[in-house]
């Protein structure tokens, strides 16, 4: 497999990460590693290369962007927004 195809596949997996982590607090790095067929260290290296961020910071950024979108575009309360953006609770959101 050439690098271009692999990079496109990886970018597709990053987009999956955006979707799953913005809506499912139970989607884990292990799920992503399995989907990408990468070890955790390979995943961390690849995400860092593609985004400039660690995986955990990238995930937090995805979720916070979802929070901003929901605050701007809906009348949902903070508890609902926390849940819809992948945070386990509004307390978890407030820590971020």
Radius of gyration from CA coordinates = 14 Å
Number of β-strand runs: 0
The CATH class assignment is Mainly Alpha
Which structural class best describes the helix and strand composition?
mainly alpha
Overall, the morphology is elongated
Contiguous uncertain segments of 5+ residues = 1-6
Q: What is the CATH topology classification name?
A: Arc Repressor Mutant, subunit A
Distance between the termini: 39 Å
- Count the domains: 1
Output mean pLDDT. 77
Order of helices and strands: HHHHHH
Q: Approximately how much helix is present in the residues? A: over 70%
Largest sheet: none
Commentary on this structure:
The chain has helices at residues 3-23, 29-36, 40-51, 55-73, 78-84, 90-95. With 96 residues, the chain is mainly α. The protein has one domain: Arc Repressor Mutant, subunit A. It is elongated.
